[in-house]
Amino acid sequence: MSQNSLSAYAQDLVADVLATAEAENSTAPDTFTRRVLDELEQAGEIENTFTAYHKAHGLEVNGYGTNESLGTLDLFITHFSLQPEEERLPRAQVETLFKRLTTFVRRCREGLARYIDESSDVHDMCVAVEKALPDAPRLRLFLLTDVVSTVSALSPGDLDGLTVTHEVWDLNRLHRLASSGTLSEPIAVDFDPPLPCLATPETDRNYSVFLAIIPGQDLADLYGKHGTRLLELNVRSFLQTKGGVNRGIRDTLLHNPDRFLAYNNGITATASTVEFTQLPGGGQAISRIHDLQIVNGGQTTASIHYAHTRDKADLSRVHVQMKLTRVSPDRLQEIVPEISKYSNTQNKVTVVDFSSNHPFHVGIEKITRSLWAPAADGSGQETRWFYERARGQYTDALARERTPANQRKFKSLHPLAQKFTKADAAKYIHSWAGLPYLVSRGAEKNFRELMMRMGDNVPDVNTSFGQRLIAKAILFKATDKIVAAQDFGGYKINITSYSVARIAEATNRRIDLDRIWREQRLSPALTAALEELCVPVREVIVNPLRGGTNIGEWAKRPDCWEAVLAIPWTVPDDLIAELADQPLEDSAPAAPDDTTTGDIASVMAIAAPEWFAVARWAKETRNLQPWQRQLAETVGRYVNNSWTVTDKQATQALRLMDEAKRLGFHATF
């Protein structure tokens, strides 16, 4: 690792955190924590993270997470320094920080939540940790810091019978993650004893294939340590234990473990490098695998892990066949998805390539690399929005500018604030499309949902699509700053996404995205509307309709979205005056089973005067919600002009018409 590149990364990191904290009215440690957690979540290291800072005598915590893939409970503590290059984090301080985190866990088990204000996000965190502890097979503690630590990790420990592991994400490790250009840190696995294998005839210099038998316990341990990171290049998600194949796997593991090798098809794996050792009796065995990925057999692997951890299955007699393909590192992203695609045939599932080479992401990258954004500051200097299709692309591009002068020029043309990732794009798209509850489920799950909904129906990523996607990015980022300025205290990402979704719905997606692109900012009318709207949106999010429901879980439910839609809020006149005549296209792919064509036909078959009549009736009687009255007027105008309504408008319009008739509406025109 170049010391110069590490130094540049440290300076950029601190500068970006401070700038973001100032813009979002947040503290630097909180901003740093959220940034690192977002990066680790996108890398598959963690899931379902939530930030909340609490410090008391002997304890401190900056957030928690629940990893559904591993079943672990994760806790985070942050050490943020303004001088990362000058400071070092010694072992004693690392141990002290982990001890403070451990004390927090113990206090949660003892009922710490009872002493915390119920309206605070810290209370939610304490309740969630207390509930998760009894069922968690393992507790993972993370130390996040922008300085170099003298230790990379501590040995596993024990907390009242619960296994505890420690991970240190320091400056060096964060830099490796940011500059690797891959989805996450490569997985390297040592086998002791080595795995005897059989090499197949080599037919292509870009790859070679080996056959081996891997012990079931080793496979379960691998998944327990790395989770879904093992499946990053897999084209399918783990199907849980609902499918017949998975139930069969579980039954075999519990009742006929000796027959598992005969009954199961095994796994297909890939690697960039495979190291061997010679066996005493002749032949070779695999001693180490670099960049291990399981591209077929993900459900087999996860089922073995779950059977061992949840059902206490004895894996000592379980063995799994493995076909291991060594692929040249420079061809890994090209060949592995094809291996995965053609080998995944056991279950009927939508084939989705989650890798960076998906045509959708390639298309966005191509468009943004050639798209000049209008100057927003009056300087006349056009800039570009940088789409990071693969991790580390921005850092790599900056590093290729050898001289400081060229690097300054690169940054001025590609401002860091205008960089966005695949996960960011999914947030912008789903918020605009009225799916904020998916955004609230976390970056990785939201991204996967976007790709699954898309399937083979890849949008036409042309110039207009690129400009409007960036406009949605500007809308989301500006709303995020508006929400931060309110100093609500927590749930910022949820309030932001729901506010964007609500205003898009209230305006029937007629917010002029093309104007936002041209001006690279929101209009004063739109800004004021969002400042007003985010307040009642926040009230709905932090006050779940179901008693005892955790706020974070409530925000992930469609019920929360229905409650936000019911907010009695109307679009201000000055914003109405600048709306586009027709709704802009919804770029969120529909779920595969969304079939609402019949609803559209039913809506268009109702005469425009009837839609106008129900809007007047609802206003006079104060029946229906304001957004429903507004929707009735909009649908009436669409029908009158022979414009086609969207699927979502049709579904909601029919619903409001049925509700109006139930409440006594009769057409009198």
Pick out its properties:
16% strand; 669 residues; 27 helices; single chain; 7-stranded mixed sheet; alpha/beta
Strand content: 15-25%
Helical percent range?
A: 40-55%
Shape from CA axes?
Answer: globular
Number of helices: 27
Reported for the largest beta sheet, the result is: 7 strands, mixed
Strand line-up in the sheet with most strands: 12-13-9-10-15-11-14
How does this model look, in words?
This protein has 669 residues and is α/β, with parallel strands linked by helices. The chain is 47% helix and 16% strand. The protein is built from 27 helices and 17 strands. The longest helix has 23 residues, at 463-485. It is globular, with a radius of gyration of 27 Å.
Short description:
The protein is α/β, with parallel strands linked by helices and 669 residues long. The chain is 47% helix and 16% strand. The protein has 27 helices and 17 strands.
Task: Compile the SSE list and pairings.
Elements lengths: L2 H21 L4 H15 L6 E8 L2 E9 L4 E8 L8 E2 L1 H19 L11 H12 L5 E8 L2 E2 L7 E3 L2 E8 L1 H9 L8 E12 L7 E9 H11 L17 H12 L4 H4 L3 E5 L1 E6 L5 E7 L2 E4 L1 H12 L9 E9 L4 H12 L15 H12 L15 E3 L4 H8 L3 H10 L5 E3 H11 L3 H4 L3 H12 L8 H23 L6 H15 L6 H7 L4 H18 L9 H4 L3 H8 L7 H4 L20 H9 L2 H14 L4 H15 L6 H16 L7
Parallel strand pairs: 3-5, 4-6, 5-8, 11-15, 16-17
Antiparallel strand pairs: 1-2, 2-3, 7-8, 9-10, 9-13, 10-15, 11-14, 12-13
